Give the backbone structure.
Amino acid sequence: MELTFAAPSTPVIPVTGSTALFPVHRIYCVGRNYAEHSIEMGGTGREAPFFFMKPADAVVPVAAGEVGHMPYPTKTSNLHHEVELVVAIGKGGAAIPVEKAHQHIWGYAVGLDMTRRDLQAQSKQQGRPWCTSKGFDLSAPIGPILPAAAASDVETAAIRLTVNGVVRQESQLNKMTWNVNEIIAELSQFYTLQPGDLIFTGTPEGVGAVVAGDTLEANIEGIGQLTLKIT
Ligand code: MN
């Protein structure tokens, strides 16, 4: 096969305890999956969550013990952090039942759904898509993926984000409106999931702005962590 130009390389993410790399296929995100965050975004807290996407090459993989870098993006003056559990899919499927969803999980990571909040607010007001506010270049920093077999107690783990050492977001994964298995079941009704797909599962309350020079430390108990500097 002759290509007109070299095909872009597949984005990859380091794996905890291994030299293997996880190849990223697509990035799905869940909106308003924690009641308290739904309320801070102007919702009722009780509505059903929903999905949006980021391109696969939005990932900023950050290896363990390293500091990732994200340049402050163009076209915004209100860049927000959203700390989230990321589920990495290892086995594809469509219409996956809740009780079988765990069989499709390859691993877990902590990620940041970075958001141009000012553009998102405009899009909401005008009924326009969120692509430029959510799916921009480098909008998905992510720590190493922990294989599911090595993860304990994902349902109740604490999730936390500090900015320059000050706690901004702090919650527990059991506060999600849809839990991980329910997200996989629901998402696979809309899309045939593929190995390499990532799902950002939504953020708890406490989202806020960051500026150039800030250092973000995201952590999920028993899963992993991620350090990111905005440059
Ligand atoms: Mn989010």
In short: Residues 180-190 form the longest helix (11 residues). The pocket of manganese (II) ion is lined by residues 29, 82, 84, 113, 200, 202-203 (CB under 6 Å). The mean pLDDT is 96.
